[in-house]
Write a structure and sequence with these properties.
Number of strands: 14
Number of domains: 1
Shape: globular
Number of helices: 9
């Protein structure tokens, strides 16, 4: 735990989306019509959702992102401000539309995501308030706005601020540009395998770690978290839970992992904390809205015996 009385501070740099999430029994073959059981609306995005988790679990967070100069953009600003996030770095791009998405979640917790991003949105990161990176404890970046992530991580490293990249599947060359800039390259297992072409997570972690000086790991769903350290792959398992909705579970992991590291926890302890936070999220419908509170994560951890991370070799 951090010895400071001031909670750690994170800055999230990435995409912002106004999302409607429908819960259905199953997604049928087309053509079809299916009635939704539930509907929620949420402002999300990979790094943004991680920042929300970082804040809900006890930290402070701000968002550097673009939205449209429209009503969904104005509503998104109000929602994030109500969440306690610093939105001074949220830029409304004149003449553009805020990204929107529809997500359909079935009874197994799996989802179909249909996003729309206005191609007219200026991708430039020239406006980012990089001078405000000083004093941050972590920069959280995603691959959906590569220009912003690259600018933020280069600036963060120049002033000694750690930066964590969400290594999700991305367009050609994006991960190749961004992974070397991250002090913490935290992939999804699918993103890691797509990036390396390796047959297993263990082989892929070894491959990336050979050319990376920082932390390299991968979230593996129900199998927990795996990372390379000291010449071997280590693992922390995820607790078994009834899954209702997996949407944003990886984002919650990133936010929780970043917070625990910023508090001074070792990688294994931080990964365990994050696995419990992400697993609890999976028991709740609503994407990032299902992120638990700090005390819920601590109760979950106390209920599961802990014998340290598992060293599994290559």
């Amino acid at each position: 735990m951090s010895v400071s009385s001031t909670p750690p501070r994170a800055i999230a740099v990435g995409a912002l989306c106004a999302t409607r999430i429908f819960q259905v029994e199953a997604v049928p073959s087309l053509p079809a019509k299916v009635m939704a059981r539930r509907l929620v609306e949420v402002v999300d995005g990979m790094a943004l959702s991680a920042a929300c988790a970082f804040a809900r679990l006890g930290g402070r967070a701000g968002v550097w992102a673009r939205c449209g100069d429209d009503e969904p953009g104005r509503a998104a600003r109000a929602v994030l401000q109500a969440e306690g996030l610093d939105v001074s770095g949220l830029r409304a791009v004149p003449g553009s539309a805020t990204s929107q998405a529809t997500v359909i979640v079935d009874a197994r917790g799996e989802r179909l995501v249909v996003p729309f991003h206005d191609p007219a949105v200026d991708a430039s990161a020239d406006w980012l308030p990089l001078q405000h990176l000083t004093g941050a404890d972590m920069v959280l970046c995603d691959v959906r706005w590569p220009e912003g992530a690259e600018a933020a991580m280069r600036a963060a490293r120049a002033v000694g601020v750690p930066c964590m990249l969400d290594g999700e599947i991305a367009g050609s060359g994006v991960l190749g540009r961004l992974v070397p800039l991250a002090t913490h390259a935290v992939f999804s297992d699918a993103g890691l395998l797509a990036f390396t072409g390796a047959p297993t997570v263990e082989t892929a972690l070894h491959e990336v770690a050979q050319g990376h000086t920082g932390h390299v790991g991968a979230t593996c769903g129900a199998d927990g978290y795996a990372w390379w350290e000291g010449g071997a792959v280590h693992r922390v398992p995820a607790p078994a839970v009834p899954v209702l909705d997996t949407l944003a579970a990886g984002d919650v992991f990133h936010g929780a992992f970043a917070l625990a590291l910023a508090e001074g926890q070792c990688v294994a302890e931080a990964a365990r904390f994050a696995c419990h936070a992400a697993s609890l999220k999976c028991t709740r419908f609503g994407g990032r809205l299902g992120c638990p509170q700090r005390h819920e994560v601590e109760v979950s951890m106390a209920a599961v015996p802990w014998r340290g991370g598992i060293r599994s070799g290559r």
